[in-house]
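Practice problem 4.
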């Protein structure tokens, strides 16, 4: 009775899952990439950094504009000052300050801010390529796990067919129970592997969902399945290394450091500024010229500041910047070398994937023929059930290999495009 109830529950759950799958959103790879472009958290952070750098650049462009400051002050004076000046008085003033010459610091500040904007834009492009690769990898992992689930079901069907034949044979006294038990053990292991494949499919979906901004939502399907064909292998040149966003980021960083060096040198140049102030005060006889309670006045200032001696501190800072630039240039050269190795490694991996697909396809054809012959011979009574199980296991492994080979090809293709700066 309990078994019947359990079977009915499984049937209901299966019907719900089938209904849910039928109405689930089907996403292509391009749609996943578009959703990631719009919703991925890393890309949002990169955009915020670009926007912040733009705001800083806009602020730097205003440094040559005059600044206007206002002030209000109330004063109470006790003895003896209260006897000489109004004991209670208030004043308000406004000052306009205009920098006339700052040794190039304002211009260099603008240039540095603009370079930082370009740097963060390049950094965003780098983040986009990393997210793109992560989305493609997660997408094809789902393809892998979907195919593994389908394969697990087919393998279970094969085992159940063999189990049925052996059960009939055992009941007829034509085979040993040990043969039947061996198949049932394999069947239990296959059910466990199917559960693992389903769990792997769920986790792959959740990983992709996080990348495309749908965290926790696995209620979608993907359009692709395991592909049989492979594209012609692309060719690359060393020129492709120059378009890598990592190179652009490092080069822009060096440019920023050069501007910073100029800014430090500019600190040793004189600065010239002018200011105009207006002041109003109120208090008993605060106007000492005519004894009235109100006083209005204005004054202008021109200030020149010339650095004379700083114990060589500025020179040390210039040397520090020079060493930073050398470090950045060395890092750039190393990155170019590593990228060249990465491109070569990615190309080798892609070539291996192509060969792997061809060999796995041949192995699968042989495994299918081997299984067909094993089934025919088993029915003819020339081999035992153990031989059929071995043929089924070889068939299952050959299918697993072809699935992995095809998925690895798609992932390695994306890695190759990223290595050559063509993943967009």
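Answer key:
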């Amino acid at each position: 009775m309990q078994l019947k109830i359990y079977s009915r529950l499984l049937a209901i759950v299966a019907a719900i899952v089938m209904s849910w799958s039928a109405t689930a959103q089907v996403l292509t790879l391009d749609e996943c990439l578009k959703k990631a472009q719009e919703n991925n958290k890393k890309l949002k952070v990169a955009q915020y950094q670009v926007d912040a750098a733009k705001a800083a650049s806009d602020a730097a462009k205003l440094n040559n504009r005059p600044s206007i400051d206002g002030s209000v002050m109330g004063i109470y004076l006790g003895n003896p000052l209260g006897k000489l000046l109004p004991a209670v008085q208030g004043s308000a003033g406004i000052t306009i300050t205009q920098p006339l010459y700052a040794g190039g610091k304002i211009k260099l500040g603008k240039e540095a801010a603009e370079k930082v904007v370009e740097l963060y834009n390049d950094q965003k492009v780098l983040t986009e390529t990393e997210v793109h690769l992560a989305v493609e990898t997660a997408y094809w992992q789902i393809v892998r796990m979907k195919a593994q689930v389908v394969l697990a079901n087919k393998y279970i069907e094969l085992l159940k067919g063999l189990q049925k034949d052996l059960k009939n044979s055992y009941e007829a006294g034509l085979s040993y129970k040990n043969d039947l038990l061996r198949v049932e053990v394999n069947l239990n292991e296959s059910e466990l592997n199917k559960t693992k494949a389903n769990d792997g499919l769920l986790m792959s979906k959740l990983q992709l969902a996080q990348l495309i901004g749908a965290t926790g939502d696995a209620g979608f399907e993907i359009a692709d399945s395991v592909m049989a064909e492979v594209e012609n292998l692309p060719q690359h040149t060393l020129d492709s290394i120059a378009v890598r966003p990592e190179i652009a980021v490092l080069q822009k960083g060096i440019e920023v450091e050069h501007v910073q060096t100029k800014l430090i040198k500019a600190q040793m140049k004189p600065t010239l500024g002018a200011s105009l102030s207006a002041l109003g005060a109120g208090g008993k006889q605060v106007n000492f010229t005519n004894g009235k309670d109100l006083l209005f006045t204005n004054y202008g200032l021109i200030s020149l500041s010339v650095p004379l001696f700083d114990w060589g501190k500025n020179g040390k800072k210039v040397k520090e910047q020079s060493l930073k630039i050398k470090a950045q240039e060395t890092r750039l050269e190393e990155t170019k070398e590593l990228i060249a190795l990465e491109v070569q490694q990615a190309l080798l991996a892609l070539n291996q994937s192509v060969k792997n697909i061809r060999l796995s396809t041949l192995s699968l054809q042989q495994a299918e023929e081997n299984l067909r012959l094993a089934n025919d011979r088993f029915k003819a009574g020339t081999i035992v059930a153990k031989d059929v199980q071995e043929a089924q296991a070889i068939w299952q492994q050959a299918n697993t290999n072809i699935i992995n080979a095809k998925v690895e090809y798609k992932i390695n293709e994306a890695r190759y495009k990223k290595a050559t700066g063509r993943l967009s």
